[in-house]
Every structure is written in structure tokens, then in C-alpha cells.
């Protein structure tokens, strides 16, 4: 899965099941600036990424029992992550859409609920 940050400076790439990594690329400089494993060992694979519209250093990843918010720290060349609290909900998150003001994240699941 791929997404461009809203300022079009960064490209976020999510690898497949074989690597499971998130890499952030600086498009102008044509270099990878940071990356890490996309999920915790206790969850399944991450399947997609979606960039916020107003905060261009923030994006979301979702997949099998995982939903995470990421912040690109360009100065320290690292990603900071926060797991989204979904309680006891066990779903495969398959699609994401963020409102123009970044206030609401809509997430689709394999079960449709």
C-alpha cells in the first residue's frame, strides 16, 4: 500500500507479508528517511496506509487486528506510533478515509460493521 502525504513531500510505503515494514521516502531528495516494522507481534499484518489531510507528518495504518497512528519525526529520522484503542473489537481493517479537517477517521472492515 502507498500514500502521499498532503504536502506531497513524503511517500509512505507499506510492505507486504514478506517484509511488513513501513518506509517513509523524501520525494524531492529521493531517499528513505525512516522506517520500522508496521505491527506488533501480537497482531496480524498491516494492509493499508492513509495520510491525514491537514497534518502532513501524520498517517494511519490498518490491518488484521491493528489500527495505528504514525508521526514522521524528520529531525530525528524516526517514526512515532500510537495504537488506536478499539477495545475488544477484533476486526480486519481494510479501508480508511479521513475527513478534510482530520477530525474523523472512517474505517471499513471485512465483516462490514
Which range does the strand content fall in? over 45%
- The amount of helix comes to under 10%
Q: Specify the CATH class.
A: Mainly Beta
Got a strand count? 10
Order of helices and strands: EEEEEEEEEE
SSE layout and pairing:
Layout (H helix, E strand, L loop, with lengths): L1 E3 L5 E5 L6 E6 L4 E7 L8 E6 L6 E6 L2 E8 L4 E6 L9 E6 L6 E5 L4
Antiparallel strand pairs: 1-2, 2-3, 3-4, 5-6, 6-7, 7-8, 9-10
What does this structure look like?
- There is one protein chain.
- The protein has 113 residues and is an all-beta fold.
- Helices cover 0% and strands 51% of the residues.
- The protein has a single domain (2-109), classed as YVTN repeat-like/Quinoprotein amine dehydrogenase (Methylamine Dehydrogenase, Chain H), CATH 2.130.10.
- It has strands at 2-4, 10-14, 21-26, 31-37, 46-51, 58-63, 66-73, 78-83, 93-98, 105-109.
- The strands form 3 sheets. The protein has a 4-stranded antiparallel sheet with strand order 1-2-3-4, with no helix packed on it. Strands 5-6-7-8 form a 4-stranded antiparallel sheet, with no helix packed on it. A two-stranded antiparallel ribbon has the order 9-10.
- A hairpin with a 5-residue loop joins strand 1 and strand 2 (10-14).
Brief summary:
It is found in: Cytoplasm. Strand 2 (about 10-15) and strand 3 form a beta hairpin.
Short descriptors:
single chain, 113 residues, mainly beta, Methylamine Dehydrogenase, Chain H, four-stranded antiparallel beta sheet, 51% strand, globular, flagellum, Cilia- and flagella-associated protein 52
Amino acid at each position: 500500500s502507498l500514500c502521499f502525504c498532503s504536502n506531497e513531500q513524503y511517500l509512505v510505503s507499506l510492505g507486504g507479508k514478506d517484509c511488513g515494514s513501513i518506509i517513509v521516502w523524501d520525494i524531492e531528495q529521493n531517499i528513505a528517511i525512516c522506517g520500522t516494522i508496521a505491527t506488533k507481534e501480537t497482531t496480524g499484518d498491516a494492509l493499508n496506509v492513509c495520510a491525514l489531510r491537514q497534518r502532513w507528518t501524520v498517517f494511519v495504518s490498518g490491518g488484521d487486528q491493528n489500527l495505528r497512528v504514525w508521526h514522521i519525526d524528520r529531525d530525528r529520522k524516526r517514526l512515532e506510533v500510537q495504537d488506536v484503542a478499539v477495545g475488544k473489537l477484533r476486526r480486519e481493517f481494510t479501508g480508511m478515509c479521513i475527513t478534510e479537517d482530520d477530525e474523523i477517521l472512517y474505517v471499513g472492515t471485512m465483516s462490514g460493521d
